[in-house]
């Protein structure tokens, strides 16, 4: 048996908060697919449109394209609520404006679970995290804490997707749909690595992020680190 705790199941709505298009697909889309298969509601909210994410493409062209790819990708894993906030790609900071938008969205969607980006400096030794991700993750934590200090009406749990996981979701049955979901970012991936077919890139990434963990009996999982919520969960 894995030493990770099972992800909670007593919830109806999850809010996925990320910085850019493709952020959900690189880590947590397989878990999202499982949850929507179970009839749960999952909402995606993205700080930016990723308008600076494709080399050689002007932001005015890139942003709408990446939004379209994100919506297509989300639909593959059963998510039909996707919103973009318009914060500047590659220039996201933990500002009062960003924290206010996070808080407004949490109050409007009223999820029981928030899923956010890993905010640490490195994924592993020599593998630095992106500044946008770190700033955004910090803003999510700060907004959550401010809500808790005010009305107290906050989601029961806030998780980050990344290393140092505390909880896991079994996703053996969702591997292929997660691959297709990432591959829907076709233009982005084809420019990112023109020498590798998009589907091969997607399969390799999902293979890495869902690889069976020690003690998991060969079962593919997605891991999440509990950042806020009941400590004994």
Q: Care to describe what's here?
A:
The protein has 233 residues and is α/β, with parallel strands linked by helices. The protein has helices spanning 23-27, 29-37, 59-76, 96-109, 131-149, 175-183, 186-192, 198-209, and strands spanning 5-6, 13-18, 41-46, 81-84, 113-117, 122-124, 127-128, 157-161, 167-170, 221-228. The protein has one domain: Rossmann fold (3-Layer(aba) Sandwich). Strand 3, helix 3 and strand 4 (81-84) form a beta-alpha-beta unit. Helix 3 runs antiparallel to helix 6 and helix 6 crosses helix 8. The chain is globular, with a radius of gyration of 17 Å. An eight-stranded mixed β-sheet has the order 1-9-10-8-5-2-3-4, with helices on both faces. A two-stranded antiparallel ribbon has the order 6-7. One of its GO terms (molecular function) is hydrolase activity. Its EC number is 3.5.1.-. It is an enzyme of class 3 (hydrolase). This is PIG-L family deacetylase. Keywords: Hydrolase, Zinc.
């Amino acid at each position: 048996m894995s030493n990770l705790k099972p992800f909670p199941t007593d919830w109806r709505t999850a809010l996925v908060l990320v910085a850019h298009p493709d952020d959900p697909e690189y880590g947590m889309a397989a878990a999202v697919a499982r949850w929507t298969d179970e009839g749960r509601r999952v909402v995606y909210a993205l700080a930016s449109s990723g308008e600076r994410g494709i080399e050689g493409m002007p932001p005015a062209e890139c942003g709408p394209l990446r939004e379209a790819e994100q919506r297509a990708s989300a639909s593959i894993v059963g998510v039909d609520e996707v919103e973009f906030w318009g914060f500047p790609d590659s220039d996201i900071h933990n500002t009062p404006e960003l924290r206010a938008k996070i808080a407004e969205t949490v109050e409007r969607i009223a999820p029981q679970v928030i899923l956010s980006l890993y905010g640490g400096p490195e994924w592993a030794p020599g593998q630095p995290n992106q500044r946008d991700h770190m700033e955004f993750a910090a803003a999510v934590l700060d907004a959550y804490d401010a809500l808790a200090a005010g009305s107290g009406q906050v989601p029961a749990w806030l998780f980050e997707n990344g290393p140092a996981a505390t909880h896991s979701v079994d996703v053996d049955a969702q591997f292929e749909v997660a691959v297709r979901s990432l591959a829907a970012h076709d233009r982005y991936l084809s420019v990112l690595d023109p020498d590798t077919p998009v589907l091969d890139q997607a399969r390799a990434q999902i293979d890495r992020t869902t690889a069976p963990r020690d003690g998991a009996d060969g079962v593919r999982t997605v891991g999440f680190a509990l950042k806020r919520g009941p400590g004994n969960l």
